[in-house]
Amino acid sequence: MNDDTLHAIATAPDLRELQALRVRLLGKKGELTEGLKSLGALPPEERRARGAALHERKRAVEAALEARKAALERAALDARLAAERLDLTLPGERVPAGAHHLLTQVTNRLLDVFASLGYEVVVGPELEDDRHNFGALNFPPDHPARDTQDTFWTTDGRLLRTHTSPMQVRYMESHEPPFRVVVPGRVFRNEAVDATHEAQFHQLEALVVGERITMADLKGAITEMATALLGSGTRTRLLPTYFPFVEPGAEFAIWWQHPKTGREEWLELGGCGMVHPRVFEAVGYEGVTGFAFGFGIERLAMVSYQVSDIRDLFRGDLRLLEQFRGVA
Ligand code: FA5
Questions:
Q1: Distance from the CA of 45 to the center of ligand 1, in angstroms?
Q2: What is the pLDDT of residues 250-277, one digit of tens each?
Q3: Assigned domain for 228 exists
Q4: How many angstroms separate the CA atoms of 84 and 62, rounded?
Q5: Are residues 188 and 312 in the same domain?
Q6: Which residues constitute the domain of residue 240?
Q7: pLDDT by residue (tens digit) across 170-183?
């Protein structure tokens, strides 16, 4: 045995090799064990010297084995600690949270405004019948006003509502005045789709009925809404126009300063007017007056947030959705 043995121990690559060396040297039939066993056969003077040398050698081998074992175990532990290293200073993984669509945000903002003005929020069916969408709203059969609101029909004669106004009729059929209600919802039209027209979009409708409700109340309600949205001093404008279910009828606009361009301009929002006597007749109301107005939510959202193409609102493109997280 020579220092090659100690070198082999000191450089054993792993615990298995080290154990093999231990067996080869110190096992039952190991080199050193055999050497010690054979001492008995030696003459006494030689035995002492040889015995001392062998024991010395055995201690050296044992110490070398222990040292290498400790080194290999420490290296294994270090490798494991390095592999399992946990950096508690790293930022956590972000769980992406959803957000409301821009249209939902704008709608909720509007509903908050109307709730604060004392309006009840009601919703109605998107699949309507001719009577509620047209007939009771004073669109006679084959009247050209129907052409402005072409829509999709089911084979049983029902249709996808073209505006939220049918909820005026539904609400009045099942409630007694006085009341103020506001109706958000999706509507449909058979339109040639372009940057400002979709085949489905959203409207918000308001209806107020009671004794001696006047056009001044209508103008006041629109101004109150505009003020709540845009601040005090906001001006509103009504321009006469025709809708079969109101008389007089008007389109309304808000004078506002555009939030991005800073330009002051009229923002045309929708239609309004005093509820037509024929509509009251259709629902069996007498001795009351009322006003209604309705407008496109996409239009308000697009102008407010500079969305130039209405189709972008419905594409589900994350770039747009993320841009308008929590804005309204
Ligand atoms: C109506 O729908 C009436 N029901 C409004 C009304 C209510 C009048 C109560 C009187 C009393 P109009 O068809 O103009 O009116 O549509 C109202 C608004 O919906 C428009 O000003 C516009 O902002 C929006 N709109 C209409 N067509 C589309 C479309 N294809 N895509 C997106 N928005 C539209």
A1: 121
A2: 999 988 777 677 888 888 899 999 999 9
A3: yes
A4: 33
A5: yes
A6: 102-324
A7: 999 999 999 999 99
